[in-house]
Specification:
single chain; 20 helices; Rossmann fold; seven-stranded mixed beta sheet; 20 strands; elongated; alpha/beta; Nitrilase/N-carbamoyl-D-aminoacid amidohydrolase; eight-stranded mixed beta sheet; 2 domains
């Protein structure tokens, strides 16, 4: 439960219809197994103590008496269990029969959530046996204790901040206004559903869409436990389709037609943070729902859920290709509008033979196609200097020609040497002045050519470089429109590869593949034996790590120690813990120290959920202090 994670389980036990003793035994067995596996919230199906398909047997006193006794036995079985457990059962109260989800914790029945919406259509006829629960919760006398009874009961953890759980039952979530909506507005971050949803053609996909959609709408975790094998098959078949979802993503789902348990970890702190940031998520102005405390120990939750090591890049190839095409289109449409609005006659792109300038040139070509302009109005400018290698130079020139852009070469070495002479800098001193003078000279050339050609300078820098400040202020940091400004380095690579894979021009594709194989470098230091001497990732760290850090810091606001924990989990086997910690410290030091470069960024299109524009997603003081973040790393990442 440290860092906000809580392990949950959804269980479909073997049952026998109307055999409460057998069902109790199976439920208790699964309580033992799930809690031994670390689950702190365990959810069983609707009416699982008796079976959902008892029909008119629900009118038999003996079944209801045995169900009540079974609930008491199961509650007693939880006395030494460190979990909040939800079990479905019928319950007779004041001459009426209700379908309820009982919440059990440490040997007690904490509350009885009633089903609000009873289906009475198609294959369902629940109104024949049951009554809708009351509109508002009250209390009933059960086993000598007064127990909360009704809809939208909130179960509040004493040990874990923000952990509030509420239950609904099957049809409730299919209704126009599910009870979970108001429960979420009053603080519930995990919704559990005790369900008995039968299988028909196409229903599983709709059910999954419904549960994931509800978790997204409520910015909540959702644990759905469904009835399965053991229910009567007189007219229906139940598949035990269990799901665990979090804010629109299905973390775990069972194979249908196989009873058992699924597990995952819901990130409660992430959900709470998302709600704070989302101004359209409106909390209830006053609390009216019952709040019931439950006990679980605050322990370290072992992670089993998938944590993507490349969170900006979809794993699945088809989805990745779809994402790449969409991003390229967004980039191109942003540039198309800017070119049209400014009445520019050309676009000027500085090309180096590296990934970023390659992507910028590809996007510019796509924008020109959308405008119906001839690509020869794109001016690709290569500016060799001290660090340029033959490989990158040749790739830059070949790529420009294959794309149909105009190509201009400007040798800047003499101009930079003159500048060194003017400011009194020794050209043998390969310090930051040596490097930045080249970057600024290139930007000056591009800007002046753009004036000559009535054009716009297209920025090439990507979001990862902006995060680290790996750009020369008023050098490659500056442009007239930055098409790559919200594209992280790990995604740049996939965008270029996608373009190469989709290209019908094999010569162009070969150039792009070679660009992909070239080490990332600003090429500002002289080559060694004709090869690139300055490799960016040797200096600032692997971009795949930095993009991971950036995503979880900006998207979810995670503390450094949590990011470190997730990185160790996601990159297990790829990087040693001390390597991850080293570059994480570098990331925070550079991110805070280089904000001044981001505070004056040129315009550029947002393409994903994370962006650094000072006009939009990220408004940070340029002189903010990183001390608290660094202390967390020092104190909690040993």
């Amino acid at each position: 439960m440290r860092h906000g994670f809580i392990k949950v389980a959804a269980v479909t036990p073997d049952i026998r219809v109307a055999d409460t003793a057998y069902n109790t035994e199976q439920i208790c067995r699964w309580i033992d197994e799930t809690t031994e596996n670390g689950a702190k919230i365990v959810v069983f199906p609707e009416l699982c103590i008796t079976g959902y398909t008892c029909g008119d047997l629900f009118a038999q006193d003996i079944l209801l008496q045995h169900a009540r006794q079974a609930l008491c036995r199961i509650a007693a079985h939880t006395k030494e269990k460190d979990a909040l457990i939800f079990v479905g059962t019928p319950l007779a109260v004041d001459g009426e029969l209700y379908n309820v989800a009982a919440a059990l914790n440490r040997g007690r029945i904490l509350g009885l959530t009633t089903k609000s919406f009873l289906p009475n259509y198609g294959e369902f006829y629940e109104m024949r046996q049951f009554r809708e629960g009351p509109k508002q919760a009250g209390e009933i006398l059960f086993g000598g204790e007064r127990i909360p009874f009704g809809p939208q009961l909130l179960y509040v953890s004493e040990a874990m901040d923000n952990l509030v759980v509420s239950a609904e039952i099957c049809e409730d979530v299919w209704s126009p206004v599910p009870p979970s909506i108001e429960a979420a507005r009053e603080g519930a971050v995990i919704i559990v559903n005790c369900s008995a949803s039968d299988e028909t053609i196409g229903k599983a996909a709709y059910r999954e869409s419904l549960i994931s959609g509800q978790s997204a709408r409520l910015i909540a975790g959702y644990v759905y436990a469904n009835a399965g094998e053991g229910e009567s098959t007189t007219d229906l078949v139940f598949g035990g389709h269990n799901m665990i979802a979090e804010n629109g993503s299905v973390l775990s789902a069972s194979r249908r037609f196989r009873n058992g348990a699924i597990y995952s970890e819901i990130d409660v702190s992430r959900l709470a943070g998302e709600r704070r940031r989302n101004t359209t998520f409106k909390s209830a102005q006053e609390r009216t729902l019952p709040r019931i405390s439950f006990e679980v120990e605050l322990t370290q939750t072992e992670l089993t859920r998938k944590i993507a090591s490349r969170p900006f890049v979809p794993d699945e190839e088809t989805e990745r290709a779809k994402r790449c095409e969409e991003i390229l289109t967004i980039q191109a449409m942003g540039l198309k509008k800017r070119l049209s609005h400014t009445q520019a006659q050309s676009a000027v792109v500085g090309i180096s033979g590296g990934l970023d300038s390659t992507l910028a040139l590809l996007v510019t070509a796509k924008a020109f196609d959308a405008l119906g302009w001839d690509r020869n109005r794109i001016l690709a400018v290569t500016m060799p200097c001290f660090g340029t290698t033959g490989r990158t130079y040749r790739n830059a020139c070949r790529m420009a020609k294959k794309l149909g852009a105009g190509l201009r070469e400007v040798q800047i070495e003499d101009a930079v040497r003159q500048h060194f002479s003017d400011i009194g800098h020794d050209p043998e001193d390969h310090d930051v002045t040596y490097e930045n003078a080249q970057a600024r000279e290139r930007t000056q050339v591009l800007m002046d050519i753009a004036n000559q050609e009535n054009g716009l300078v297209i920025g090439t820098g990507d979001m990862s470089e902006l995060a680290l400040g790996w750009a020369t202020y008023n050098g490659d940091h500056m442009s007239m429109y930055g098409v790559n400004a919200s594209v992280p380095k790990t995604l740049v690579r996939h965008l270029v590869r996608y373009y190469a894979d989709a290209s019908t021009d094999m010569e162009l594709a070969d150039v792009l593949y070679d660009v992909l194989d070239t080490p990332v470098s600003p090429e500002l230091l002289p080559p060694k034996d004709g090869e690139i001497a300055q490799k960016t990732e040797d200096l600032v760290g692997p971009y795949e790590l930095h993009d991971f850090f950036l995503y979880y810091m900006l998207r979810f606001g995670y503390e450094p120690s949590k990011i470190y924990r997730l990185a160790r989990y996601a990159f297990g086997g790829e990087y040693e813990p001390d390597v991850i910690l080293k570059w994480l410290k570098t990331f925070y030091r550079r991110f805070f120290g280089q904000q001044f470069k981001r505070s004056c960024l040129p315009d550029g299109p947002k393409v994903g959920t994370v962006a650094l524009s000072p006009r939009g997603d990220w408004r940070m003081p340029s002189d903010a202090c990183a001390a608290s973040w660094m202390r967390d790393l020092e104190q909690n990442c040993r």
